[in-house]
Queue: 2 jobs
Job 1
Amino acid sequence: MNFRKILALITIILLGIFILQAFLIIPEKGEIALNNFGKADIENRTAQLYIDKSVNSTNEQVIYKESKDKESGSANIVTSIVANYRALDTLGEVTVLFLAATGLSAILYNKKHAKSNFILKEDSFILKNGIKILFPLLILAGSYIIIYGHLSPGGSFQGGAVIATAFLLKLLSSKEYELDENILKIIEVTAGVSFVSIGLYGLYAEGSFLTNFLETGTIANLFSGGIVPIIYITIGLKVAVELTNIINDLMKA
Amino acid sequence: MVNLILIIALPLLAAFLIPLFNYINKKLPSIVVFLTTAINLLIIILNYNQIILEPVIIELGNWQAPFAINIYVGTLELISITVISIISLIIAFYNLNHSNFSSESKFHTLYSIIIAGIYGIVMTGDIFNLFVFIEITTVAAYGLTTFNKDKGYEAAIKYIIIGSISSVFLLMAIGFTYSAVGSLNMAVIAAASNLINPGLVRIISLLFFVGIAFEAGILPLSIWVPDVHSIAPSAVSSTLSGLVFLAGITALIKIFFNLFADPSLYVFLMIIGAISLIIGELIAYQQDDIKRMLAYSSIAQMSLVLTIISVGTKYAISGGLFQLFNHAILKTLLFLTAGLMIKYAGSRNISDFGGIAKKIPLIAVGFSVGSLGILGVPFFNGFVSKIMIVNGSLNAGEYILTFLVLFATVIEMAYYLKVIQTIFFGKISINPHKIVKSYVPIIVLITVVFLLGIYPELITKPLNQATGELLSRSDYISNVLGGM
Amino acid sequence: MIDFLEKWSFFGGSVLLILIGLYGVITRKNLIKIFIGLSLMDTGINVLLVSLGYVEGGIAPIITSTINNNSYNFVDPIPQALVLTSIVIGVAVLALGLGVIIKIYEKYNTLDISEIRGLRW
């Protein structure tokens, strides 16, 4: 235990007290403070409007496979927030991922075309053939998670990560496996550009960036939610490509 | 009326398309980025007259104002984005000829996105969206720092570590605010802020301060600044010092004036700012590396702005804001010219710049104009803002603060004049390392400096209006929430 | 008692996670360990955000054949959307940081920050 560690410990403890007292504040009458655990107040707040899908329209019950043409058509409410109500955040988030991939490839640029110096043992039979079976399954599972993102748990980020895992396995299993960087680049450009273009078309057609310009359909149908599933597919492709790029760059470094 | 969201969307679109442009022609990415910044300036000019009359609220996705993300452009935001668009255009022009990196197209991608992020920080009306844009800006800045293959990595890792810690505290502040108020919209939070327990307000706003101040160049969170600014390529240093700091301070102002207007916080800001100001100036005085000196000077200037704004009177705030915009213009000029001098002399030390003015007169003059502007010499743009700052703090009865500001100016004078003396009258001792040329950006920036120095009304009139808007929170709230 | 434990195991636990991460960042000398500390902080803040939006007895906010918006308690969906964003941003920063670490390792052949010039603090 040297001086530096003791100093760090004292700082941490003071900081902890400072933060934790926020939870201990008991509000006086009429005041508001942090909610108690499990008592998050949703009623009459923005969250309730998102759940009822009544930001722009009146509050009606949302019924599975029956409610039609609600303002936002996805059954998964988190999806409707991510890809519809707060879509600008998601655009920003995809941009950050794109930035990381671009920055990483710029950092590791010099060695870009060097062979992987990741020490791999002789390709084992089980590894190689196991991944041959797993690879299409992982791609399938990832695509399912993306495409059904507006209906069931999951979504484009999760699905994109699963697809990237498939490529990670492929890269780990074989020394010879090379990703075609041109194809990756084409998908990357297409996905990013179509996300922004969908937003811009909304601006052109409905007068506001990232507006839903399609029919929202019946809740919980596969073809429902207007632009939500389309945005989700573009994000899914983008996330899959960026993560694959990151893995590829890091393995070749 | 063109929708202002385009100034965020277009740079992003351009950045996503750059791999394609790079495939067509290696020169195309820089031209595209230059064109987008030019179009952005055009969009802002087209909107200027309307926004100056009445703040504009852009509802994204056609969702009603307080319930989803909205973008708020009042007078302060309008002046900020105008200054940002002018400076980013100049730097993009500079990049056309001065970006010979091993992966040039990626540099332009990151530059385009950092501009979008800076616009976003300034304009957004939603605290989580603010976080996202701050992250966009910082991650782009991490990437841009590493374009110096020599020493960039050490600076970048420092930046990344401090940035990540800060972003955790920023998220915590956002989480607490959301839990208490139930909304992420700035106007809703502002309307409810009187109801929040005062103890909690203090905790939340301190967390916000920790989260944003690292982006705004306030010590002690900005210990990364000298490393990053001195090592990054000149165009990046100018962007970080001029524009990112501007956006960071604007975000801090929004948090502390629009969201939580608690007078006890202003005292805290003033003390932190004053300490940071004096320390920044003192360390800047000791530097021999010219870019490190400029970086510490930036820290001091930002602290000065923060201190003066937290005085809280109308006159002082206008002065502080004026100084903020002056600093953005002057530091761009200083970093660009300093970078060119470094390239020419092949050294970063001030002592090696003896008599450089005889070899590259325009660049030396540009550097001197920038220095004199920061010092606040008459006919330079810094003069009016310095006068306003001193008057503002005197009128508010903050005599200690006035003394500190004057003391800081004296130190500043010592080190800037030392550089000017060396480059004009020093013994000629340079063998040109590399021939450098750049006329248009420097001439344009010098023109802007004198324009604002001789006709300060160009900016003080809208600034007074912006200050008025800042001090009347109820107007801000009712603008966004309507009659609610 | 149970309430108390429940509250502090989530709120206190997540804050503790953040503090442990911060302690690691401050005291460790190995760059990889510092980044593990940063990851811990990220995880802590994500747990904190989600637990701030928890509703007792609440379920995931998805409309299914048995669940519609009025008949059940949903947990707050907004923090979940925020956490989704913050996780992705955390991953991006981590990846970039690791790339830089690789370069630093190539240059100095060490990850110890006390041996790397320009990183001592």
Note: The two ends of chain A are 37 Å apart (CA to CA).
Job 2
Amino acid sequence: MTDTTNSGPMLAADGRPLKQSLARALRRQKIRALMLIAPLLIFIMLTFIIPIGNMLFRSVENDIVGNTLPGTVEALEDWDAQSAETLDDVVFQNLFIDLFKAAEAKEHTKLGTRLNYEQTGISSLFRTTGRNLDDIGEPYQDWLEDTDERFKDGAFWYEMMSGSGGEAILEERRDLWAALVGEGMAGDIGFTLSGEVAELLPWTAKAYSDWAIYTAIADEDVVAEEDPWEAVYGALGIDLRNADTVAAIAGYSGPGADALRAAVANIGAMPTTTFRDAFAAEDEDWLKTENWQTIKIYSPNYTMGYFLNSIDMEKGLDGAQARPENQQIYVKLFLRTLKMSVIITLSCILLGYPVAWILANLPARSANVLMILVLLPFWTSLLVRTSAWKVLLQQQGVINDLLVWLGFVDDANRLILMNNSTGTIIAMTHILLPFMILPLYSVMKTIPPSYLRAAKSLGATNWTAFWRVYFPQSVPGIGAGSILVFILAIGYYITPEIVGGTDGVFISNRIAYHISSSLNWGLAAALGTILLSVVLILYWLYDKIVGIDNVKLGG
Amino acid sequence: MKLTKTLLASTALTVAAGGAIAEGHMAGDMTLVSWGGAYQQSQINAYATPYSENTGVTITWDESSAEAVAKLRAMNEAGNITWDVVDVVAADALRLCDEGLAMEIDPDEQLAPAPDGTSAEDDFGDLLVGDCFIPQIVYSTTFGYRTDMVPEGVEAPNDICDVFDLETYPGMRSLEKRPINNVEWALLCDGVAKEDVYDVLATEEGQEQALAKLDTIKDSVIWWSAGADTPQLLADGEVFIGSTYNGRLFSAIVEQNQPIGMMWDAQVFDLDGWIIPTGLSPEREARALDFVYFATDTQRLADQAKYISYGPARLSSAPLVGQHETLGIDMAPHMPTDPENAKNTFLYNYEFWADYRDDIDAKFQAWLAQ
């Protein structure tokens, strides 16, 4: 005894402290358990969690504006959108450089589609202008080439722009390209930018670098042998508008200095149209303040715009504001989805409870036959079941024919049972009924019939025996069934689409529309996120009120 | 990812190409995407079977055209394009082109000239919508009505405004559950001149005017979302008159002998054709281009009209349209482009709807939900 008390911590057989040894063994066990479930875990991560996370992320993602028009967005920072002051020409100069590049890579129409969700008309504005950007650069090209023949020659441009010291700018342009096209633009381009020229002609340096990177990496041509884009000529035009640049050229002595000086000497012949007017000549809508406000509002990389849209609001100049009344729909649809899901769940309880009770109390053989009847619809395609309801419910359908034949309904006033919410409720109650019956049945199966007999022998009436003794014991089954039916119902879309008409459709139908038709995946993701949160909140409420331990899916 | 692939592809193409791409460098099988039903069958008969016989290529069909845009976008993001040639309506082709998901086509280089030497560009003419779309057929969205449900003493409907006239023609109508076409028809019947329709629709008031007109028949409308719905509703006597694609009505009337009549007034022409997805391997791309060259030549387009009443997209195909393959009736009078039928027509305005689709659809859906 004294030995152990003196030697400090208790030791295991191998001489290590017992505590350590135990932790080790436990850890090994945990790892082994983890390894066992690893295939499932990885599977779920890859096929469930990551895609859902990715989809949810789209509801706030908005880097397309900044990636496509980086210079323009920067130039817009000083612009007060609220006062709608006239835009500085530098915005349009940036737009020219950005959009030219985007149009070459066929990325501008994507941005047009994106912004068209917020401001009608931007889609065609980007598409048509993207086709004709050459027209804006060409006057500068003509002027430069008339001034000095050498501007026609790609090799001359290469000589003038090449050098060293402009690596940082080149890498920056390369990163912007990578962000624009969504993949790396790495690789040798056979061109290095001269730092001196970059300082002298900043716009030209940027435009030439853009062109050189694209020519070398995407077109796989040799930079020295190709003629630059019209955007490069336009950029030189922008540079030469700056009086400081013109003054600095006098002191410049690098390659192409004489050609630049010739251009300065001939500056009187340079096109005088501002870039603003040049864009306006392509499309008047470039002058519309609303379009620029939209670009400015949606220029950050993340946006709450989709979520606001999902609750019938929009991002305005002063923050969130309600949408015009004639466009409000989502809140209404969310509420309708909830309301109808509750009605469907209640109808399932009403219809399913007696069936489950019979199933649980019949002798095994007849119960099995009934069980097959319950399960039969499960084995039929959902579409077939819904279409069958169409045949039954339509105005010239089986149910109406029967009612007319029996004389309950006048032939001229046949009941409208589908293409409205009634149709959705009837068809969905039928389709979801097994999800209520099965958990109810498995719970009722475990309630010993002797309890009821005992209650009755103690003097209870049939009703009291049922209500006070039997029903409370079946509540966990109702809970489980309700959760199943409600959660399934809230996300349903095929059945409402087919029999729901206009007032029987759910929010999921709009989500499906935005996924497959309007391609507004951001909005679809936001609507989906809200729907998911609503379900989780309701689940949490349910747990608080009823307690999730009281839910039984089986014995 | 996408660009790297294109780069790899073009490198491989440069290496492989010495001149024309030889047969050996094309893929041996391909997946075509279409709409299913009688339309796809007409494509199988007119294009796919002869092409397979000529070249030995195995063709697999996928009936996904209705969701083609969304699926191609998803495939592109996953970096695995499994389709080679996709049949889509022109509006979707335009969107795929905008999204960079469809390959640009040079008609004169990549499509067959007409037999008399007219270039493909001139032969297709205005129907070359966008830079990626290879036109195939002209179809129209028009009305069919139950001949036995026309009230006594009234002549059969022959004017688009009869659809809005509940007094003369009582009964249910079926219209497509989207604003396109419906709002144009509503404005036409609310006194707007045909040439002004899109100017009016571009304004807030014009959109309200159109919805207000539709409101007058809202309670009598069943809204459809699949092309098969209206023929079914007409056959069941659920509706008196309804809009759908003319080929669907043709098969209900001529092939199934239903008591249905055609009303061609203010039919809206639309185009359907092929696109080739971007990001295919050079072998598959060469095969896709080879197929499209074959499938959109003058004779092939005329052949398709033997099986379905959609007009060929080439001018040079029109004179070659003959009789129905099995029924032996003349197809020309059933074509939407037939002069008798095309007295008053509309052409789907692609540019307008590309811009206004989201905006007007939001208002239309909000109106529907009221």
Note: The interface with chain A takes residues 1-4, 6-7, 10-11, 66-67, 69-70, 73, 95, 97-100, 172, 177, 208, 222-223, 225, 236-238, 351, 354-359, 361-363, 365-369 of chain B (CB under 8 Å).
